[in-house]
Amino acid sequence: MNMEFLYFPEDKMEYIPAIISLIIFMAGACFAMYFLYKKSKKDEKLADEKYGMNQIENQQEEQKKDS
């Protein structure tokens, strides 16, 4: 039995399940990227708030030491 490396079906209806699964996986990937992006922005905001507070506290401590 000699199989070709690439198989292109004569009946184009055989492409439908592949297209459906492609759409499902692409939608899942977009959904995952959306939530990863949203989580990343939230984490970035929390880190900025925490770092900013630490920076302000450090500046206040330095001013107290200089006084």
Could you describe the 3D structure shown?
The protein is mainly alpha-helical. The chain has a domain at 35-62. Helices cover 78% and strands 0% of the residues. It has one helix at 15-66. The longest helix has 52 residues, at 15-66. The protein starts with 14 loop residues before the first helix and ends with a helix.
List keywords for this structure.
single chain, 67 residues, mainly alpha, 78% helix, rod-shaped
Quickly describe the structure.
The chain is mainly α and 67 residues long. It has one helix at residues 15-66. The protein has a domain at 35-62.
Walk me through the topology.
Blueprint: H1 15-66
Q: Overall 3D geometry? A: rod-shaped
Q: For the report, how would you describe the main beta sheet? A: none
Helix percent band: over 70%
**Class computed from helices, strands and strand pairing:** mainly alpha
Radius of gyration: 28 Å
Mean pLDDT: 85
Low-confidence stretches: none
**Strand-residue proportion:** under 5%
Count of runs of 4 or more consecutive helical residues: 1
Question: Could you give the order of the helices and strands?
Answer: H
> First CA to last CA: what distance?
90 Å
Write down how many β-strands occur, each being a DSSP E stretch of 2 or more residues. 0
